[in-house]
Every structure is written in C-alpha cells, then in structure tokens.
Amino acid sequence: MMKKLLLTTLCVAASLLATWAQGTAKITFEKDTFHFGAFSENNPKVTCKFKFKNTGDALLVIHQAIASCGCTVPVYPKEPIKPGEEGEVTVTYNGAGKFPGHFRKSITLRTNGKPEIVRLYIEGDMTPKE
Q: What is the pTM of this model?
C-alpha cells in the first residue's frame, strides 16, 4: 500500500515537473489594429499583414483564426513557431456587395500560448463607386 502511494506521488510530481519545464508560448503582435484608410468601391478588396513574434519559451501554435464576418478572410501559419521566431497573419477584406462607408471587423485567434485568445481588428472607409 505504501509503495503504491509513493509511486503515485512520484508520477504526479514528475508530470507536474514535465509540464512546468515545457515552458509557455507567448504571442506578441507589433500592433493589433490596421486601418486601411479610404479606398474605392471600384477596388473593394484590400489586404494587410499583422506581424507577430513568439516571445515565450515553448512552441507557439495558432489553432484557428475566426473572422467576425464572411467578407474578412484570415490566413495564418499552420506550422508551430519556435521561441524567438516571427510569423504573420494576413487578412483580406472584400467589400464587394457591401454598403460604402466605415467598417470595423475583428479576427479572433485561438493559440496554445498566453494569451490563449487574441483579437485583431481591421477598419477602413470604402467610398462609393465613381
């Protein structure tokens, strides 16, 4: 009985130590908002890039990127980002069929790092066709 308890305690301690030793990924963006400014409804598709760095000490994995609307499409790295390495999330907004004027959209990233949830924002002003 005593051996079983000791073995269980050692296994739990080893698991906790292994988890702690793995470190934590941390995603750090240069900026979290991009403003496109004014662009014409004649050319309604605009794209930007959000650069980030893994400032943690473990591999960073972006599990998913979800846009607040179908007119916004995020593209993100599918492979893990090593500590100290950089990456980027490319976001394309397509205003075709949308009303001209100001817009603000969000992209929610889910990662294995700290913070686990990150929100990026794009905004701009689409002017009417000429």
A: 0.81
Strand partners, 74: 91
Q: Do residues 74 and 58 touch, judged by C-beta distance below 8 A? A: no
- Cα separation, 57 vs 22, in Å, equals 8
- What pLDDT does 9 receive? 54
The DSSP code for 10 is H
**CB neighbours of residue 18 within 10 Å:** 9
Report the sign of the C-alpha dihedral through residues 121, 122, 125, 128, in that order. Answer: negative
DSSP helix/strand/coil, 14: helix
37-74 tens-digit pLDDT? 999 999 999 999 999 999 999 999 999 999 999 999 99
- Residue 62: closest CA among 107, 98, 101, 95: 107
